[in-house]
Amino acid sequence: MSTQVFIFGALNGVGIGMIYFILSIGLTMIFGLMQFVNFAHGAFYMVSAYAAFAIAQWTGSVLPALLISPLLAAIFALVSERVLLQRTYNLPHEAQILITFALAILAQETVTMIFGTLGKNVPVPEMFNGVVILGGFVYPSYRLFVVAVAVVVAVVMWLAIERTRLGAMLRAAAENAEMVGLLGFDSRKIFMGAFAFGGALAGLAGALAAPLRGVEPLMGREALAIAFVVVILGGLGSFSGALLAALLIGITQSLMSMIWPGGAHLMIYGVMTMILAFRPTGLMGRS
């Protein structure tokens, strides 16, 4: 592999990794901070991607979907949490897995009934349909846009969690929900907000990914598997770890798809296994 091809593959991997990062930090918040195992997270991603497809068909551009689809995913997550999932917070993780997995299957089958089983293509926005020349390399404009969006999301997330009163309450509720309640705050509302926000982030990832990979009913399962790999590899509850792990997975997958296309997906789990063998708590996780 020439140096130019290697760099091109690495740059493509950055774009893929940034989508994985946006997808995974929502799961990191729910899984790492709330101690809730959410197997429906991929369904939020899938529903948003299909909403992006429908909006692109209706308006002629996927750009409005970047605002509307995350909102729809947040509503889906909020309704699921209020109607069903809040009743499972004190149940064993096995029960949470079964219930959220059933919710994901329900969403998948509903999408299949509406849109069919065949995949759909989502056009890249007209304004991002070209390329950007970076030194001697050519990089798709839309992938650069995805990276920029992910950077903004990362900065906003860090400021919200580490520098705001709401972020402090969220971290406190995750550590000791009963104590937060004694201080006059409703931990249930904090968790409800975190769940909706996590759904919105998964929705944003789905809307961004739709023009790159298209949409199909099983995309939620693939997204869920990768999100859990990123969360575990980065370290439970670690946002910086999620960013590092997502970039590592994205670049690995992109490079391997050029060297060994059939094993590109397999190498995601190979990288995770090798790193966890030496760091069981993940790249940035704590014991």
Helix content range of the residues, please? over 70%
Q: Could you tell me the radius of gyration in angstroms?
A: 19 Å
Structural class: mainly alpha
Strand order within the widest sheet? 1-2
The largest sheet is:
2 strands, antiparallel
| Morphology | globular
Task: Compute the average pLDDT.
Answer: 85
- Compute the number of strand runs: 2
- Count of alpha/pi helices: 11
Q: For the terminal residues, how far apart are their CA atoms?
A: 39 Å
What letter string, H or E per element, gives the SSE order? HHHHEEHHHHHHH
- Note poorly predicted spans: none
Membrane topology: Multi-pass membrane protein
Transmembrane segments: 6-31, 43-60, 66-85, 97-119, 139-161, 190-212, 224-251, 258-278
GO molecular function: transmembrane transporter activity
Protein name: ABC transporter permease
Tell me what the structure shows:
By secondary structure, the chain is mostly helical. It has one domain. Helices cover 74% and strands 3% of the residues. It contains eleven helices and two strands, in the order ααααββααααααα. It has a two-stranded antiparallel ribbon. Helix 2 runs antiparallel to helix 3 and helix 3 packs across helix 8. The longest helix is centred in the first third of the chain and has 31 residues. The protein is globular, with a radius of gyration of 19 Å. The N and C termini lie far apart (39 Å). The mean pLDDT is 85.
